[in-house]
Amino acid sequence: MAVDLRAVLLSAFDYKTEKYVIAKNKKVGILYRVIQLSLLGYIIGWVFLTKKGYQETEESIQSSVITKVKGVLLTNSSGTGPRLWGPEDYVIPQQGEDVLFITTNFIETPNQKLGYCAESFKVLDGRCRKNEDCPEGEAVVAGNGVRTGRCLKKDRNSTGTCEIYGWCPIEKSQRLIVPLLGKTENFTIYIKNFIRFPKFGFSKSNVLDTAGDSYLKTCLYDAIAHPYCPIFRLGDIVLRSGHDFQDMALLGGSIGILIEWHCDLDKGYSHCHPRYTFTRLDFNSTANSVSSGYNFRYAHYFKNPAGETHRTLLKVYGIRFDIQVHGRAGKFNIIPTIINIGSGLALMGAGSFFCDMVLLYMMKKSTLYRERKFEKANKYVI
Amino acid sequence: MAVDLRAVLLSAFDYKTEKYVIAKNKKVGILYRVIQLSLLGYIIGWVFLTKKGYQETEESIQSSVITKVKGVLLTNSSGTGPRLWGPEDYVIPQQGEDVLFITTNFIETPNQKLGYCAESFKVLDGRCRKNEDCPEGEAVVAGNGVRTGRCLKKDRNSTGTCEIYGWCPIEKSQRLIVPLLGKTENFTIYIKNFIRFPKFGFSKSNVLDTAGDSYLKTCLYDAIAHPYCPIFRLGDIVLRSGHDFQDMALLGGSIGILIEWHCDLDKGYSHCHPRYTFTRLDFNSTANSVSSGYNFRYAHYFKNPAGETHRTLLKVYGIRFDIQVHGRAGKFNIIPTIINIGSGLALMGAGSFFCDMVLLYMMKKSTLYRERKFEKANKYVI
Amino acid sequence: MAVDLRAVLLSAFDYKTEKYVIAKNKKVGILYRVIQLSLLGYIIGWVFLTKKGYQETEESIQSSVITKVKGVLLTNSSGTGPRLWGPEDYVIPQQGEDVLFITTNFIETPNQKLGYCAESFKVLDGRCRKNEDCPEGEAVVAGNGVRTGRCLKKDRNSTGTCEIYGWCPIEKSQRLIVPLLGKTENFTIYIKNFIRFPKFGFSKSNVLDTAGDSYLKTCLYDAIAHPYCPIFRLGDIVLRSGHDFQDMALLGGSIGILIEWHCDLDKGYSHCHPRYTFTRLDFNSTANSVSSGYNFRYAHYFKNPAGETHRTLLKVYGIRFDIQVHGRAGKFNIIPTIINIGSGLALMGAGSFFCDMVLLYMMKKSTLYRERKFEKANKYVI
Predict the structure, then answer these.
(1) In a mutagenesis test of the B interface, which of A282, A362, A380 is the best target, namely the one with the most B β-carbons within 10 Å?
(2) Which residue spans adopt a coiled-coil conformation according to this UniProt entry (chains A, B, C) (predicted)?
């Protein structure tokens, strides 16, 4: 399938004859060249320089994230006495994974025992007016225990709540005013991130090789001053995501930490650096409202000397940090280079055809151009 | 690189002359037009309307999933007395992540102490016929403890099991008949999902902005009646995946909850909705058999007044819910529009060439068409 | 857009006339054919046979991983007496997920109580020379508790450490020499992996259907002898990643287990097999140094008869196994077949044009070829 070579010779490369056409119809000629140049610019500037079309790329990054939070804190809530919080208590789970929850507030209910008490009035399904509203053995929906069949109420005509068998006393619903663990703002998280591009056998860590132990013991991440320090202040992370730590600490939330590795391996090992981005994930831009937070409950179980079980229930609020690693590496390879040059040439051809179409059928003075073109062709053909 | 313009003029656009060809050879002409129309249909119908080729797309969705399970349950196993299960007990891990395990059955072994007892007969490596079969200090493979060097057997000739040092009494192997926590079928899970398409700065949640707190307290997901309620009954989820909750609860299993966000951002914020799909993941279609379930063990440790440690071992069976979020958003952008129009035109050209090839070399009466074509060409050329 | 058909006829398919050109200019002709053949080879060999261009592919694999570790172990550290480690103790988290940590070493600090003691001398921020260095109520950065305002030191001029309120006694910093749980090398992990390609409705498990229970009780993965046994010895996994288990066990590390499913569904169900790859993830190839390991702390809380809380703190070192599942399935589909044939033909055309360009402008003896070409063309045209 050979494209007509004469036409190629005449219109695209034979500058002498073309100049004659341009002389006759400058606008047509200029447009023609502009389109050709912009296509060439697209191929060289965009495909080769910006998109690095001469490189083989690898998107499937292998990554390992190990995190470690440091900091201790003393809380002294009225009911339950002093409580010391170390990372083994406020980081959940403790095993230093890439998703970690930092407790920033809590409601403690100590010394719960299995027994009988009244359901919370806040639980809709637990309200009752007579004993028949509390069928025995049926659990209260979204409640704290199983109904015993009795309705507990202050006086005859009021609405009461069902008696339940469950962990008593039940958790008091409390209005939270300040985050009890607000000082976690100053705690630090050390993020060790190892990556590997298996196709290129390239591996690197976000901890600089040149950074000694002493640097790691004192440095703190800062986008400008210390971009390669892997230790982050929790308050700074929240701040960089555009929110306030103390606001978020009250009811909890979710923050995404994105580590991006865009590596041009042609430039050498030391030019491959991580880039950190912080975003609040549980945020609804349109509603202009922050979601109602992040909390869950867990319990510590104990046995008294008699062998009876009691427990301490904790409802904890906090911030979940979700570390995600993305990456892309590129390295020169002959195959994509050839393919891109080839498809570039094909595009040039298609562009050239497109130009002809435009010039022949859409320009006002196209008749002249058409005539000249055939004239030229005939000169050679006949 | 100009494609020969005369040929273009003559064969593809000069309708008058072409009509003549069609008159002479209708079949060839019709096929020619059919192919051209189907290419045009492909470009407009498929590339632009179906695949939305005029849009820039974003596939890397940022997502945050927070889950909360509600429901309490009382079990009363013969050996261990009443036990109240709240979400803090039957959901593992408790921190409301996107992968959560719901306990549906369990075997409890209370009051284990470190000591000496016989290995289970079910453990192959623990069987013995004489003391030499039980080398002291060696752990039983897949067993419960470390051999003490003694072989315990009922009488001289029978096969016994090694004495071990471990947590005694060892767990009794039990045949499970009913799921003890089968009532979890009626429990609900609230899935809060926040997504963000960073390229477009678009964020949304699966909880409707218009949905008040009261709606969320009473609604239940239903594909038809309540497609935007983020609260799911566990039994419904399993049912929608095509399985039975009570069957699955006995030995456990794994369910995938897929949340898909396919958003056409040209249509506006309110047209971007999540779609939920439920699949059983631990299922082997060909073998027509469900795997042997999902279980694991954990222990609660206690100390008696004398400071000795004892523990309660729990082997729990249950269903793991794995919430995955996928998404794709598209928005009008001039660059993909231009690229798609360009490659569409190029394809039209290639298609045209293909037609010529077919017509010239593969059709029976192609000779006539070929003659006509050159005839036309010569008319202009000479 | 019809490409000039005469040129097609003359240069690419009219072998007779071409032979004449070749006779005149063999080098040019051979190069021409070589390029054409290599393009044809690329399309048939690469696009169709190697890349299977006739198949529709599915990359979004649905996967479920359930893991189970087996093995028990007795440690007898000097301070704390014998300790039996079962999977419920050394696997964290216990719920058999796709990311699991195996404890291989630990430092135990039993019987910690809230009280007053001296901060560790290793904590830089805890050192002091006078009481004013220890502001009351302020937590020691990266330390173990909250300062009380007193500076404890041996004599007047030495550097001491602040007194803290925290869990006392504080953890002793110990130099680790051998991994206390080094025997975990012989423990096994059973990896159940279920996959699904939703587009094709194809699901499979890495456990062979033909494998009976007895096979699974005795087999052990081996790349050659037992490639389909899903039970792996931990020591073998580390070995296959190119490292030594005992070295890694001392301070911990991170291993990636990649399960790849490349399935050609045209070949049938039984030809779709998983392939396992093992890599050490926390490894920095250039620095030639292994990172400083993987450890974290957790605590078990107890209450004594008087209701006072005490705890056992464990600093555990270990190996994290990160199981990742990748997959790609292909099945014959008419649409990609047509698209690939079409773009193949277009590429042939572009290649042909490229050849002409090369021959006309870059070869030395191109003048002859150019002349012959036009000669041929004229023969037909006039």
Answers:
(1) A282
(2) none
Q: What is the pLDDT of residues C179-214, one digit of tens each?
A: 999 999 999 999 999 888 888 888 888 887 766 667
Closest Cβ opposite residue A279 in set B62, B217, B300: B62
Quick check: A87 and C350 CB within 8 A?
no
pLDDT at C124: 85
Question: Is C218 annotated in some ligand binding site?
Answer: no
Which residues in chain A have Cβ-Cβ distances shorter than 8 Å to B374? none
Query: pLDDT exceeding 70 applies to what percent of chain C?
Result: 78
What is the Cα–Cα distance from B296 to C68, expressed in whole angstroms?
8
Give the nearest partner residue to C305 out of B93, B298, B305, using CB atoms. Answer: B305
Q: Is pLDDT at B374 greater than 70 in this prediction?
A: no
User: Beta strands A253-264 and A309-332: pairing type?
Assistant: parallel
Q: Give the integer Cα–Cα distance in Å for B332 and B335.
A: 9
Query: B73: Cβ–Cβ under 8 A, 6 or more apart, which residues?
Result: A139, A146, B84, B85, B90, B181, B183, B184, B187
pTM above 0.80, yes or no: yes
pLDDT band (50, 70, 90) for residue C25: low
Probe site for chain C from B296, B369, B378 (most C CB atoms < 10 A):
B296
Kindly tell me the burial class for residue C141, based on how many C-beta atoms sit within 10 Å of its own C-beta (0-12, 13-18, 19 or more): middle
A218/A95: higher pLDDT = A95
Question: How many percent of chain C have pLDDT more than 90?
Answer: 35
- For domain B62-119+170-328, give its CATH number from 2.60.490.10, 3.30.420.40, 3.30.930.10, 2.60.120.260: 2.60.490.10
**CA C88 to CA C70: how far, in whole Å?**
10
Cis status of the peptide bond prior to C227, with omega within 30 of 0 = no
Query: Is the pLDDT score of A281 beyond 50?
Result: yes
CA–CA separation, C13 vs B372, rounded Å? 20
- pLDDT, position B215: 79
Residues C303 and A309 sit within 8 Å (Cβ to Cβ)? no
Among B167, B287, B347, select the one facing C84 at the smallest CB separation.
B167
Q: What is the 3-state secondary structure (H, E, C) of chain A?
A: CCCCHHHHHHHHHCHHHHHHHHHHCHHHHHHHHHHHHHHHHHHHHHHHHHCCCCEEEECCCEEEEEEEEECCEEEEECCCEEEEECHHHHEECCCCCCEEEEEEEEEEEEEEEEEEEECCCCCHHHEECCHHHCCCCCECCCCCEEEEEEEECCCCCCCEEEEEEEEECCCCCCCCCCCCCHHHHHCEEEEEEEEEECCCCEEEECCCCCCCHHHHHHCCCECCCECCCCEEEHHHHHHHCCCCHHHHHHHCEEEEEEEEEEEECCCCHHHCCEEEEEEECCEECCCCEECCCCEEEEEEEEECCCCCEEEEEEEEEEEEEEEEEEEEEEEECHHHHHHHHHHHHHHHHHHHHHHHHHHHHCCCCHHHHHHHHHHHHHHHHC
DSSP H or E segment with residue B92:
strand B91-92
Q: Is B27 annotated as a binding residue?
A: no
Q: Which residue carries 């719901």 as its tokens?
A: B102
* pLDDT band, residue A15 (cuts 50/70/90): very low
Q: Is A183 annotated as a binding residue?
A: no
Q: Where are the beta strands (DSSP E) in C141-181?
A: 145-152, 160-168
What single letter denotes the amino acid at residue C86? G
Q: Can you give the residue ranges of every domain in chain B?
A: 22-54+333-373, 62-119+170-328
In this complex, do C4 and B4 lie within 8 Å of one another by their Cβ atoms?
yes
Q: Inter-chain contact B5–A3, Cβ cutoff 8 Å?
A: no
The single residue listed with the structure tokens 């003659």 is B371
Higher local confidence (pLDDT), A188 or A368: A188
Domain C22-54+333-373 fold is: Helix Hairpins (1.10.287)
